[in-house]
């Protein structure tokens, strides 16, 4: 390149300096072993890379390197219409996919100043809680697998299958429902859905009891998890942790209760579970109780489902008026938020996606000082992230 | 009843699970029916399609290829003007690209696209995943009727044109 | 076996050849049976699924198919690996398995060599596998393998002691180290004068049985003691660089040793090849014995694998604490109590 444009040269120098910082400095290690828990590793739920420096079996330093799964969501959103973006954001947190659509649709509805009818809001909440149940029940089994108990994973998949079948019978897709629309939902529930949903919720409560007996009551599990990876409340807040990780450190904060966005959580009888310890056992315990609480909430929502239309009056071609809106909801992994900037077009001008897992793993380098290698796995498993959520 | 330590109770759970029948469905000897709304494959009713290109435009992956031409149809009454109509030459959906999102089915204003729960159309060559007009017409036979809605709904199920 | 072969008047080298051939057939057969019944079918049903069903009726030929698959794989050496040590490591583990079968009796005359120091010999040769594991961990030139190998070194040596001490109680009660002698002692013994079921040592040595099984679980590096092969952390530990035929050797070593130890546990605690209602010298037991031993081995293996599939794994320091602070003191108490009660009664 023969151009001597000073702006380009300055840009290139900046990028080069950033890249030099991002490389892990292995030439200067004077002792200990650098272990690369690389992008391909059974414990990292996907392509997360953690470079740990070990002294024997103790970790001296740990550094997470994300970005192996970056798909360019925020850039994609600038060139896709609103229904197309709804389809795409299913794939951020792919285990609880419906929950990804909800904050985005709510932000768009806030910009369009349209409100979904009550029946749509209630069904939205039912599916939102069901995606939480599907997501966290996989976590309950998976944490056992990371710790060496190979049986609970299969129970998790077996019972989660029923929830996915229910979601499929309503929306058409097990993993990517694409069901939320600006102004309501795509279609109403098929006949018989409410009753099968009650049965499935009973089954999920049995599953929770099984996991409690098999894993939580197990003394080996308790010995592996108690006191491991303690995160005090102020550190958790300063790193931006959210969701069950925060509640397990004793902070009583739940967006469903504290920030109303139109979903009928205030009309239900439910409680927020916290735990004072802040260790890996506490995080597991909080998530188990949350699944139980969600099944009870879904039962209440099904009993109180109002009748009415499923879609408000919105034009066929959706052009969102200019403005900006930020809506965050309590997703299964934590607090997920969408900051939508619109200039009055068919496509959003800018969508910033605040994902919970990105902050959840930022605490890895702080919490892993001085733990053993097996504890690294325990902590990663208990923090619970999904790669699509970190990297988008 | 004295409390059994957790270790023993865990053994009981696995033992009891061992005695219950397994939940595996041995595909392909036994097949489970997907739900009627399952998004398996897209079917085209060619008579209803007017080549308006809305589905091809809205598809996030641009996996629908449509070619059509206009022709003059005879007037409806004697002595009237010939009418201009659209005819469909080519309507291909590339299922290698399709995301199964359903936007095309939803935006079609003429009820020409439908979802079918059929999913067993895997091919050995990726190029064979491009379903042309005739194949998409064949899928119409597998489209189930729309189910009745849950109590409390104000919607009426639509009819699938056969 | 000794008297049978004497009757046919074979030379010594021919007798040894037959014995070696028999053991070499038993190791893969035992590994396949244990692997299929417990690892494939029992584990699957405990996890609410069916397991292999396609290869042969109900998947009985799955491990045979797996064996063929392993044999036709490429023989890979990591670039920086020490080739000779890398190749020898699985063989060292297999030698330990092989030698264990020398002293396991399946009938009054069916034992490869009835050593007077039977159980002592068995425990001594079981320690050879530690060398093999350490060789594998070091020669793989892989940090994960090194971690696994070193963890294995610490663990296997730590759990040798409870293994040994649990057996001492049995030896005190039987009065002999010979394996056939221990079976005969259980057959001839009596419980408070009631001698129909003899005196299987599991009744009086229940604590010893529990400690022995826990130590065997650790010697086989199975959950909850599988830190050296922690699959979700160090992805196979010392076995991580082994593929194809060499991995098959490790697999056979693990399950063959499980088979052998289950056999030793049945002999020590469950009465071996003897069933109530027969005289220990009866020749009919030469035909019944193998079937009886097989049944008892399946029972012990069921216990070992049941625990394996249910529990998560211990951390390395918790594992060592369990061995040194729990199992060894318990086994010492067991020995003291056995010795005192043997003299008193």
Explain the overall architecture.
The complex is a heterotrimer of chains A (392), B (162) and C (345). Chain A has one domain (73-360): Cytochrome-c3 Hydrogenase, chain B. Chain A is 49% helix and 12% strand. Chain A contains 16 helices and eight strands. Chain A has helices at 6-22, 73-77, 82-89, 98-112, 118-147, 151-171, 193-216, 219-225, 233-239, 244-247, 255-258, 280-303, 356-360, 364-367, 373-383, 387-391, and strands at residues 33-37, 49-55, 58-65, 180-181, 184-185, 323-331, 334-342, 350-354. A three-stranded antiparallel β-sheet of chain A has the order 1-2-3. Chain B is an alpha+beta fold and 162 residues long. Chain B has one domain (25-142): Alpha-Beta Plaits. Helices cover 19% and strands 20% of the residues of chain B. Chain B contains four helices and five strands; from the N terminus they run αβαββαββα. Chain B has helices at 6-19, 54-58, 103-107, 133-138, and strands at 41-44, 64-73, 83-94, 113-116, 130-131. A three-stranded antiparallel β-sheet of chain B has the order 2-3-5. In chain B, strands 1-4 form a two-stranded antiparallel sheet. The longest helix of chain B has 14 residues, at 6-19. Chain B is elongated. The mean pLDDT of chain B is 86. Chain C has 345 residues and is mainly α. Chain C has one domain (74-344). In chain C, helix 4 (83-100) packs antiparallel against helix 6 (128-139) and helix 7 crosses helix 8 (179-188).
- Percent in strands of chain B: 15-25%
The whole-angstrom Rg of chain B is 24 Å
Task: Provide the structure class of chain B.
Answer: alpha+beta
Shape of chain A: globular
Q: Which protein chains make the most extensive interface, counting residues with beta carbons within 8 Å of the other chain's beta carbons?
A: A-B, 44 and 34 residues
Shape of chain B: elongated
Q: What is the count of helical runs of chain A?
A: 16
How would you spell out the order of helices and strands of chain B?
A: HEHEEHEEH
Domain tally of chain A: 1
Secondary-structure content class of chain A: mainly alpha
Instruction: Strand order, main sheet of chain A: write it out.
Output: 1-2-3
Oligomerization category of the chains in this entry: heterotrimer
Major sheet attributes of chain A:
3 strands, antiparallel
The share of residues in helices of chain A is 40-55%
